[in-house]
Amino acid sequence: MAKYKQPAVSQETQDEALAMAKKVQKPGQTKEQTKLVAQGIQKGIAEYKKLAKSKQRQADKAKKKKSPIADVQPETNTSNKSNTSLLPWCLLALSWIGFVSYHFLNQ
């Protein structure tokens, strides 16, 4: 069975971790000890990045769940709907009445 292999840490992260380790280096500390501190910092940075990615994924999932289609609620006010469907019929009737009256007045 294959073991899970840790992803390679970028050179930038390694340099950053080594710089931090050198900043907190105590007098008399050996290079090996400084390297161990740098490795610990690298692991901390990797863990932080992993958590940040996880939070970003969760935020993206929440954003996808909250779609604009779900926010739209059906209208409960039907009076507006009936007025809009009645208006075209009234305009049609008025236009026919106008046409018929124009036709009879010009005869």
- What is the percent of helical residues? over 70%
SSE ordering: HHHH
Q: What percentage of the residues does DSSP assign to strands (E)?
A: under 5%
- Compute the separation of the termini in Å: 100 Å
Compute the number of strand runs. 0
Q: Count of helices?
A: 4
| Low-confidence runs | none
Helix/strand-derived category reads mainly alpha
Q: Overall 3D geometry?
A: rod-shaped
Radius of gyration (CA) equals 37 Å
| Biggest β-sheet description | none
Task: State mean pLDDT (0 to 100 scale).
Answer: 81
Question: Could you walk me through the main structural features you see in this protein, from its secondary elements to its overall organization?
Answer:
With 107 residues, this protein is mostly helical. The protein has a domain at 9-67. The protein is built from four helices and no strands.
